[in-house]
């Protein structure tokens, strides 16, 4: 599938930003200009079933990864993926061949309870309001809340059907220089996982006082943790 591809900036270096499920490229609304100011051409696809990309009859990480390879130029200087975008990007690495990778609070493996919670939340997105998002994410700016509501309205709730607690999508090794950026709550990247990833060749850091959407909770902290990678 050819994905809708949004672009900001005209720098000499190229960065690919991959959103997670339930969202869209608009999650990078404040990140993209900051990277463009640093000399990047910023590419932001909408995954299948999200944003301006078509809905589909089937959704799997492998299919979403194949869409990326089909839609994005290979050889970007940096690829950065958030949440469930991380397993999609990891599967696409052989075809995309990025020079460096950042996985921001990756959702590579969830327990059964977490899977049930995600499935329940997925349904709730369709009735979400600005106030309900504000209560869950008090540090978000109004423009982030607006972007999230727009993403919720457009995504296909079937896009989460592939999620299973027994599927482990943690990469076996870092294929290229790779950073794992964990949220300050250590929920999806607990200390044990960070150590295991370091043993597989990844660098792992945490951004203090942040939840799952690090780039929205603390944009400055998000960017600061990428020093040496941008």
TrEMBL record:
Pfam entry (one): Abhydrolase_6
Keyword vocabulary terms for this entry: Hydrolase
Entry-linked SUPFAM superfamilies: alpha/beta-Hydrolases
Molecular function (Gene Ontology), one example: hydrolase activity
Stored Gene3D superfamilies: alpha/beta hydrolase
Domain of life, per lineage: Bacteria
Residues covered by the AB hydrolase-1 domain: 15-221
Protein name in UniProt: Alpha/beta hydrolase
Record organism: Streptomyces tricolor
